[in-house]
Amino acid sequence: MFHKEGSKIIFITLLLVVGVIFLSDAFISIIWLKNIVILLAIFFLVMILQFFRNPKREVDNSDNHILAPVDGKVVVIEEVFEPEYFKDKRLMVSIFMSPINVHVTRYALNGIVKYSKYHPGKYLVAWHPKASLENERTTVVINNRVYGEVMYRQIAGALARRIINYAEEGMRVVQGKDAGFIKFGSRVDLYFPIGTEINVKLNDIATGGKTVISKKN
User: pLDDT digits over 42-70, tens only?
Assistant: First the structure.
């Protein structure tokens, strides 16, 4: 299954690939060259399809744990000052998504959306230290009955040019459900209260809606 945000791009890419195949067949007489052009066109289509894939996942829904919002690699676990909403120190966990990862953003926890804001910005590489404050991004805060207020931030990368965010203030959201999409490379930061126990470590591979980032008994 593919994410709805990719419908237009997939359709246009499919038309282009079909066009390239027909034109190659009509105007390229050198067999090996024709085959290379066709294979490259098909490869491009496959890459677009895999980028917008949206696998359905069974979620262990619970207020007592927070799940990874995206697929990717845990690249940062550290205390930072959060200047936008909390204006104090928080424990940040960052997950970096490469172009081959699933780019669906899922709600990491149940609760009420207290804050949701889009920020235009730069397109630094997603792992750049200033990316979380200078790149195009969205900031969402969800109030959960066990954890209190937890923030996540979708951050565009060097290739990303559009962030989709479905969270609106006042919404009640459900853990594991579709929260948005980031097109073509990015990262997501989670901000927890200082002292929160984290169940992942640096370089772990996270699976959105499956990997437990934090758990309370």
Answer: 998 887 887 777 778 888 999 999 999 99
Query: Could you confirm whether 186 is annotated as catalytic?
Result: yes
Determine if residue 101 is left, alpha or beta; phi over 0 gives left, psi from -120 to 50 gives alpha, anything else beta. Answer: beta
Residue pair 96/156 in contact by the 8 Å Cβ criterion: no
Edge-to-edge strand order for the sheet containing 172-173? 172-173, 111-119, 137-144, 148-156, 186-192, 88-97, 72-82, 205-206
Catalytic residue among 94, 132, 186, 214: 186
Q: What is the pLDDT of residues 91-120, one digit of tens each?
A: 999 999 887 887 789 999 999 999 999 988
